[in-house]
Design goal:
WH-like_DNA-bd_sf; transcription; 6-stranded antiparallel β-sheet; disordered C terminus; 19% strand; 2 domains; Beta-Lactamase; transcription regulation; alpha+beta; Arc Repressor Mutant, subunit A; 47% helix
Length: 258
C-alpha cells in the first residue's frame, strides 16, 4: 500500500474510534459515518480489534477497547494544563485587553496557576499562587456551578465574607450559582476585593471533568462598559473550544439541582 493509502487508513482508523466515543456502533452505521463501504469499515474495525483498541460485543456492534483506556489514562496523567491552555488565556487577553487568568480548584479554594496582566493603565492583578475561597471568585463559582454535588458539599461549611458584597447566605448562593449554571459563565461582583470583578468559565477534559477555569478580571467600571453578557459569552466560547481541544465532546446537560 502506498503512502497516500497508508495515511487514508490511519485517518479511517481514528475516525472509527471517534465514532465509538458515544457508544457501540454496528458495521453498517460505521461505514456510513466513515463514508466507506461496509467491507472497508469491517476491515478497519477488525484491525483495531486485533490490537485491542476495539472490541466486538455479543450483538456484533463495535465498542472502544481496553487499549484506548490505557492511552487515555496516560494522556490525562501527562497533560500540563497551564501549557495546554496558555493559548486560551492569550486569546481572552487579546480580545478584551483585561487580565486573563487560569485557575484550578484545590479543596474549597480556587488557585491561580497562570495570569496575563491587563493592557490598561488601571489594572486588576491576579498573582500566580493567589488563593480565593470558591464563593468569592469567578473561577470558584464556575466550578460550583458545574457540579451541584460539589456545591452542596461546599455549603456544608460556613461561608466567610471578604467584602460587603460577598454572598454568604446558602440559599442566595444556590440561586446565584443556578443562574450561572444556566448561562455557562460565573461573575464575581466584588466578592473578594471591592471594585474588582471577573467573569469565568470552566474547561472540561475528555471525561467531562472540570479541570480548570478561565477568567477575565477588571475594575468594575470596565465590566459595565464592556457588557457582562458580551464578556461572559466571549469567555465561555474560549473555554468551550479549550474543552474541545482536551477531548470534551459537548457541554453537559443542565442539572436542575442546586
Amino acid at each position: 500500500m502506498g503512502s497516500e493509502g497508508g495515511i487514508a487508513s490511519v485517518e479511517r482508523a481514528l475516525l472509527l474510534m471517534e465514532a465509538l466515543l458515544d457508544g457501540p456502533v454496528g458495521a453498517t452505521a460505521l461505514a456510513a459515518r466513515l463514508g466507506v463501504s461496509k467491507a472497508t469499515a469491517f476491515r478497519v474495525a477488525r484491525t483495531l480489534q486485533s490490537m485491542g483498541y476495539v472490541v466486538q460485543q455479543e450483538d456484533s456492534r463495535y465498542a472502544l477497547g481496553p487499549r484506548c483506556l490505557m492511552l487515555a489514562a496516560w494522556a490525562f496523567g501527562h497533560i500540563d494544563i497551564r501549557r495546554e491552555l496558555r493559548w486560551a488565556e492569550e486569546e481572552i487577553h487579546e480580545r478584551t485587553g483585561e487580565t486573563a487568568l487560569l485557575a484550578v480548584l484545590a479543596g474549597r479554594d480556587s488557585v491561580c496557576i497562570d495570569s496575563i496582566p491587563s493592557k490598561h493603565s488601571v489594572v486588576s492583578v491576579a498573582t500566580v499562587g493567589e488563593v480565593w475561597p470558591a464563593h468569592t471568585s469567578s473561577s470558584g463559582l464556575a466550578f460550583l456551578a458545574d457540579d451541584p454535588n460539589l456545591l452542596e458539599m461546599y455549603l456544608s461549611e460556613p461561608l466567610q465574607d471578604a467584602t460587603e458584597h460577598t454572598v454568604t447566605d446558602p440559599a442566595r448562593l444556590r440561586e446565584m450559582v443556578g443562574h450561572f449554571r444556566s448561562t455557562g459563565y460565573a461573575v464575581n461582583r466584588g466578592y473578594w476585593r471591592d471594585g474588582v470583578v471577573a467573569v469565568g468559565a470552566v474547561v472540561h477534559d475528555a471525561a467531562g471533568k472540570a479541570v480548570a477555569a478561565l477568567s477575565a478580571m477588571m475594575p468594575e467600571f470596565r465590566l459595565q462598559e464592556a457588557g457582562e453578557q458580551e464578556l461572559g459569552e466571549l469567555v465561555t466560547d474560549v473555554a468551550e473550544r479549550a474543552s474541545s481541544r482536551l477531548g470534551y465532546r459537548g457541554r453537559k446537560p443542565a442539572n436542575p439541582a442546586g
